[in-house]
Amino acid sequence: MSEHAMNFMPSEGFRARSKEVVENPFLRQSFRGAMDFLINKRITQFPSAEELETLRTLGEQIRQYNLGKLPTLLVQLEESLTRNGIQVHWAETPDEANAIILGICQKHSAKLMVKGKSMVSEEIELNHACEAAGIEAMESDMGEYIVQLAGEKPSHIIMPAIHKTKEEIARLFHEKVEGVDYTDNVDELIQIGRKVLREKFLVADIGLSGVNFAVAETGTLCLVENEGNGRLSTTAPPVHIAITGIEKIVEKLDHVPPLLSLLTRSATGQNISTYFNMISGPRKADEKDGPTEVHLVLLDNGRTQAYADEQLRKTLQCIRCGACMNHCPVYTRIGGHAYGTTYPGPIGKIISPHMLGLDATKTMATASTLCGACGEVCPVKIPIPDLLMRLREESFSEPHVAWAMVYRSPSLYKVATWLGSRFNWLTPSNQGPWTSVRTPLKPAPKRLRDLLKERA
Amino acid sequence: MSARDRILAKLNAAPVLPKAAPEIAAWYQTHRGTESTAEKAARFRACIEFAHAEVYAVSHASWPQKLWEVLTAKKVEKLLVAPGTTHGQRAISVLSESGITCRGYEQSIEDWKEEMFHDIPASLTAARGAIAETGTLVLWPDAHEPRLMSLVPPIHIVLLDANTIHNTFYEVMSNEGWGIESQSAMPTNALLISGPSKTADIQVTLAYGAHGPKELVVLLIGEEA
User: Fold this and answer.
1) Domain ranges of chain B
2) Where do the 4Fe-4S ferredoxin-type domain residues begin and end (chain A) (predicted)?
3) Which residues in chain B have Cβ-Cβ distances shorter than 8 Å to A198?
4) Residue A416 lies in domain
């Protein structure tokens, strides 16, 4: 495990970071506005509740079927990819994954890597590893590019720069991009990004991307995107390295259409993304472009731990659409950065404990109202609220002995409630977060059993 | 023990019960009824136009004329075409008389990457087929029409035969036998394209022409035009 992962305690400071966002009306407005937009866009994509329900059930079946034979499928995927000329690497930890990627870069004496959007590369902190090795890693997704320029991290898995206003981005471009005048016209800002990044695509030595679905039978890596930077990253440079978690695998090609439909409709409310890019091999002898080398890095990083348990395994059904965060009342109020983890929001709360340990992430599962919205919108029916309850239970290792005893014994309960009602004047007026906005909790002067006795 | 062996050992150690195979064909059977070519073409057109593509109804005879009109209207003086294809040949013969330069993609990209990125305003490729439900073009780049041809030039013009439009993505791959060696083994790169490049990464404001083509033009060959 990397030093970073061992010492990283997102739980610490979670409260302080949340407070900061909650008290910032501009950030509140950014998130509320964007999440409402995405919620409404999604609704328009699912006009039939019945179709949505049967499609979600199908999505759940596809993911569970494939997870059910995950080890077999991984071996099959490796065989198919190798047959197609794609080199497969396995990594248990972020450090191992970084070492593999840097090794490939160094073999090619690479100086510049352009990156399509990849949350797994965020998970392993690839950009830091590249920097340390003297390789420039350049994000090319517009949102990721903005976040990288600002020296920040994504605050949403689909919309990385959603916490920024266009005025902030305008100032950022003006300060950080050479020869750019201040403009807060969104079209102009995008064209500035396009111009800068085109020159990078032209000269980059390595293209890095994530993977949305890996098809075991055909050895195909599928990528979903709107901008074209994913296609450029995987096509223009001479070497393409893809990285994915081991769970993103499906057995057959026809498992892809239902998942693709669920993914784009749930994520951004599009019936399909602008591009769906299916890569099944490097450039062939008679072809004129495409990378001459393609690599796939398969990353564990805690996924095998989730896999070991029937209930927790459901976490791995995730297709990373982000609908759970869009619909989460907590995420909408505190934004993505407060969580302190690569994956924020409801999915972050259930996946991060496997990556960083339960100790480091234990307050996260409590940052939920258990309203159930995340589970209701999940396109592959991950029971997120149940999993949050499970993690809450597990994170409190010392059982509340006295509490349990009182509730188990009728006579003890009788005595305890009698004491509570007689000495209710002893309850403190300051009861921590509860009394910051509420009146103190106090046992009633008469117990329920006393009231019932009076009635009789 | 390698990382591979350790990962596989951990997965194999988990108590996993096999799950029934998903019934995908059955779901799609009830999903959408069969439509005529004209109905599919209309649905395709409505969807891809909604995504900001331009669509022109043309015939086998008339498309080169429309191509010329589109290029002239957009003031394009140079077009990247595939001389090794019949449609490429037709485009070259029609356009060469009109003063529009046709450039073929004849060398490896390494030999002309600069020019491709800086000096090619538009390209013409054929689509292998399309999907009505989502307004999607299906392209399988090959030696004649390589991957970057539909990606780097700011204007991408696509020739599509209405008879090759399917209802759904599932229908395309099952009808054509994608991934089956004897029918349609997967190419190195298969693409679904559903409009010009776009992004909503700045304040969820939609902007076109992010990294790929800024404009997508479809010449839809049907019977009516």
Assistant:
1) 35-221
2) 308-337
3) 117, 211
4) 401-455
